[in-house]
Design brief:
The protein is 60% helix and 14% strand. The protein has 226 residues and is an alpha+beta fold. Keywords: Membrane, Transmembrane, Transmembrane helix.
């Protein structure tokens, strides 16, 4: 094992030295090319300045169109818990062959079964259970004023950000809210805390509270009773 590790380290060092040598050659070529084409620097600088100004104007325009209106207060905790479960699961999967080899040396069947059940729960079931709870938690919401749509961000099982673009027409408010469910957007149950909105009017608009109340169901129920 020590020999294999030393070979891997030696190979990595060799590849790193080769990459550094290539990088030095590239930098040398760049320096020589700049020295030979020094007379074109003024026009090049002017072109770069124009491109930089246009890119800055475009970025500022895009940022002004999109604004963050919601930030989840538990985003850091959710990310930390999911990261911890993923790391422990990966560590458990890697150490399983070594652990099972040691258990087989003991040769006790109840021990093998109990250890297998323990590892199966914490390696596979635990991350899935945590994801079922945290996948509904919205970390932040952005609003695009030009296109008039919202973008909600959540975390996937492997701790990647998931974007859900929607308009108020895509929102369904359940009559009986489930656990950690404030609204349903395109078949995605989401949880939002109204206290964390920078502008509460966005929350009212998303939930449909800015629309007039619909009394059609109440009138129909009264007619049926008569």
């Amino acid at each position: 094992m020590a020999f294999l590790i030393s070979q891997c380290v030696f190979g990595s060092m060799k590849r790193s030295i080769h990459k550094i040598t290539r990088l030095r050659c590239i930098l040398t070529d760049i320096k020589s090319g700049v020295a030979e084409n020094k007379k074109f620097l003024p026009s090049l600088q002017q072109s770069c300045k124009f491109t930089s100004e246009s890119n800055t104007h475009f970025d500022n325009k895009r940022i002004s169109e999109t604004e963050k209106i919601y930030q989840g207060s538990l985003t850091t905790q959710v990310r930390s818990v999911k990261f911890f479960t993923l790391v422990t699961s990966i560590t458990g999967i890697i150490s399983q062959p070594m652990l099972y080899a040691k258990i087989e040396e003991i040769g006790v069947t109840p021990v093998i079964v109990s250890v297998g059940a323990f590892y199966g729960f914490f390696v596979l079931i635990s991350p899935l259970l945590i994801h079922l709870v945290t996948k509904r938690y919205v970390t932040q919401v952005e609003y695009n004023s030009k296109e008039d749509y919202y973008t909600a961000y959540t975390y996937t099982l492997f701790l990647r950000q998931k974007k859900i673009q929607f308009t108020p027409d895509d929102v369904k408010v359940p009559a009986i809210p489930a656990m950690l469910t404030t609204l349903v957007v395109k078949d995605n149950p989401l949880f939002l805390d109204p206290k964390l909105f920078e502008d509460i009017n966005h929350y009212k608009r998303i939930m449909g509270y800015d629309k007039p109340l619909d009394f059609s169901l109440d009138s129909e129920s009264k007619d049926e009773k008569k």
